[in-house]
Write a structure and sequence with these properties.
The chain is of the alpha+beta class. The protein contains 1 helix and 3 strands. The N and C termini lie far apart (38 Å). The structure holds zinc ion. Residues 8, 10-11, 13, 30, 32-33, 35 line the site of zinc ion. Zinc ion (ZN) binds next to loops.
């Protein structure tokens, strides 16, 4: 199940939620202030692990690049 990161439009509190595919997040409420309809963020964790993974692949395929 994918994890998404949301930012509250009111208090800028950032929180993570497991979301089912196709599940709406408009009804999600901020755990800090209770305001619904948070902004969806691209999760830094996913971005980092993906780029780390790509970096590792590249090191295997093109080790000369990292000398
Ligand atoms: Zn909030």
């Amino acid at each position: 199940m994918p994890i998404y990161e949301f930012e509250c439009r009111k208090c800028s509190h950032v929180f993570e939620r497991f979301m089912k595919i196709g599940e709406g997040y408009e009804e999600l409420a901020c755990p800090a202030c209770g305001v619904k309809d948070p902004k969806k963020l691209v999760t830094a964790f996913r971005t980092n692990s993906w780029s780390t993974f790509l970096d590792g692949m590249e090191r295997k395929v093109n080790p000369y690049k990292f000398k």
